[in-house]
Amino acid sequence: MNITGKIDVKKIVKGKLFQGEKGTYLDIVLIETPNNQYGNDFMIVQSTEKDEDSIILGNAKYFKKREESKTQSDEPEPIDSDLPF
Question: Can you give the pTM of this predicted structure?
Answer without folding.
Answer: 0.68
